[in-house]
Amino acid sequence: SQTIHQWPATLVQPVGSPLSLECTVEGTSNPNLYWYRQAAGRGLQLLFYSVGIGQISSEVPQNLSASRPQDRQFILSSKKLLLSDSGFYLCAWRVSGVTGYTFGSGTRLTVV
Amino acid sequence: RKEVEQDPGPFNVPEGATVAFNCTYSNSASQSFFWYRQDCRKEPKLLMSVYSSGNEDGRFTAQLNRASQYISLLIRDSKLSDSATYLCVADNQGGKLIFGQGTELSVKP
């Protein structure tokens, strides 16, 4: 069966520090992968998506970047965090087609 | 205008009540639709897909009206455990799912 792993679960980082969040998927190949952010009390905002290794599409210009070094690995990064980067970061995958997403358990990031 | 719009609620209902959530989408090319459930501080989880003919899963019924670009979710005989935020989702045909802001439901004893 397919599973998605996301870590860490919570993270507190100072302003200006770097960030690396990792997401891996098991039990499937060539999934579409997504990074979403949910600010407190807000909806889900799509940040990046990838349909294959090395293929990244950015939805919102910002302080973050994403990479897909392997088929089932998706990484969200920042060189210097801002206070506004705080939020609940969710990785998701789907097989292309008409299926819905499956989300990882998320990383709650607080920038202080 | 947001691509997917929902009434944010909150909806406060007693146990056993029937509650209906409504959602509209703006992209007429959207083909697939879903309802997700999100518990407090947790990830969203797929509740059900929405089909043109309407579909039912136990106490939950989803309807799609393409002409009006309208989606609904009906929960019958609501339980305390139904308390959560319900997210309406549309596939915009770019491989991306667009989420509504969510409707908060609180079921009281």
Brief overview:
The complex is a heterodimer of chains A (112) and B (109). Chain A has 112 residues and is mainly beta. Chain A is built from no helices and 11 strands.
Core attributes:
heterodimer; A: mainly beta; 7-stranded mixed β-sheet; 11 strands; globular; B: 109 residues; mainly beta
Mean pLDDT of chain B: 92
Structural class of chain A: mainly beta
Number-wise, the strands of chain A total 11
On the 0 to 100 scale, the average pLDDT of chain A is 91
Ends apart, CA distance between termini of chain B: 37 Å
Oligomer: heterodimer
String of helices and strands of chain A? EEEEEEEEEEE
- Beta-strand portion of chain B reads over 45%
Report the biggest beta sheet of chain B as strand number plus sense, adding barrel if it closes: 6 strands, mixed
Query: Cα-atom Rg of chain A, whole angstroms?
Result: 13 Å
Report on the structure:
- The complex is a heterodimer of chains A (112) and B (109).
- Chain A has 112 residues and is mainly β.
- Helices cover 0% and strands 57% of the residues of chain A.
- Chain A is built from no helices and eleven strands.
- In chain A, strands 2, 4, 5, 6, 9, 10 and 11 form a seven-stranded mixed β-sheet that branches. A four-stranded antiparallel β-sheet of chain A has the order 1-3-8-7, with no helix packed on it.
- The model of chain A has no long low-confidence stretch (mean pLDDT 91).
- Chain B is mostly beta strands.
- Helices cover 0% and strands 53% of the residues of chain B.
- In chain B, the strands form two sheets. In chain B, strands 2, 4, 5, 9, 10 and 11 form a six-stranded mixed β-sheet that branches.
- In chain B, a hairpin with a 5-residue loop joins strand 9 (84-91) and strand 10.
- Chain B is globular and about 40 Å long.
- The interface between A and B is medium-sized, with 23 and 22 residues.
